[in-house]
Amino acid sequence: MSDASAARDACRPRDPGGSSPGSPPAGGPARSDGTAHRPCSAHPAARETAVPDGTAARRHKSAALEPAWWTADPERWDLLRFEAAHDASGLPVDRWWQDRRDVLDTLILTPGPVDHDFARFLLDQETRLHRHSWGFSHTIEVAALLLAEHRRPDDVWHLWRAVLAGFDTWYGLPHRLLLAAGGTTRTIAYVRGSGHEQQDNLLGHLEKLAVATDDDVTALLAERRRHHTGVLRGLDDIPERDDER
Q1: Which of 143, 165, 189, 243 is most exposed, with the fewest beta carbons within 10 Å of its own?
Q2: Cα–Cα distance between 133 and 97 in angstroms, integer?
Q3: DSSP 3-state of 112
Q4: Which H or E run contains 94?
């Protein structure tokens, strides 16, 4: 059995039960299949874990929370790939959101940048989850933050898709993460010359945001990392988010 298969057996539940995070307002956009979104009231409950061998399972699950385990073999990323499902109540869920959440929580607690391609992959999966279901989970901001920390101009399109994933991400994600590549001036210059299909839409939005310098963005990234690590570690002194998106 491969490491990836063993980790899948150790970490993944038999039943996709539970519900998607958050609760939406009444109404809202339809899902891609044309049916109406249904509200979800809470994070999914913990699900039963299939453990074929206790000792081996603990070893593989522990290894699977280490960043190096994932970067050693990108094929393992499939273990965290979004998979649309519905629970017994018909609510939209992602079968593997808990596994991805555990990895994201570990990554934000680990000092230093995450592998760029892995960070981009994780944000794309979180974006797909938040398009599929109502609600806002901290995991999409963590994924966006891990990608934004690389400060690469072309990542703005992945961050923009995350912001546009739904009503909840529009109001839940800090929009200034879109300026991660160097602040307002540099980001607008990159977008204006990109020729991307979303160029005009993103430019119009960026021009409405408060002007931010590269130093402002650096401070924002540091503050949001402190916030999430503080929450996960149960610290009392947790920085509040600036109301200015």
Answers
A1: 243
A2: 12
A3: coil
A4: strand 92-94
- Whole-angstrom distance, CA of residue 25 vs CA of residue 37: 10
Q: Please, are residues 183 and 150 in contact by the beta-carbon 8 Å criterion?
A: no
The answer to whether 156 and 178 are in contact (CB under 8 A) is yes
Distance CA 242, CA 175 (A): 11
Question: What is the spatial distance between Cα 117 and Cα 74, in angstroms, rounded to a whole number?
Answer: 9
Average pLDDT of the residues of the chain? 78
Tokens of 4: 């990836």
DSSP 153: G
Query: What does the pLDDT look like over 178-189, one tens digit per residue?
Result: 999 999 999 999
Backbone angles phi, psi at 93, to 5 degrees: -140, 170
pLDDT in tens, 75-104: 999 999 999 989 888 888 888 889 999 999
- Closest among 221, 245, 223, 225 to 171, alpha carbons compared: 245
Digit-coded pLDDT (tens) for 51-72:
234 344 344 555 667 888 998 9
pTM for this model (two decimals): 0.73
Q: What pLDDT is recorded for position 87?
A: 87
Total count of residues recorded for the chain: 245
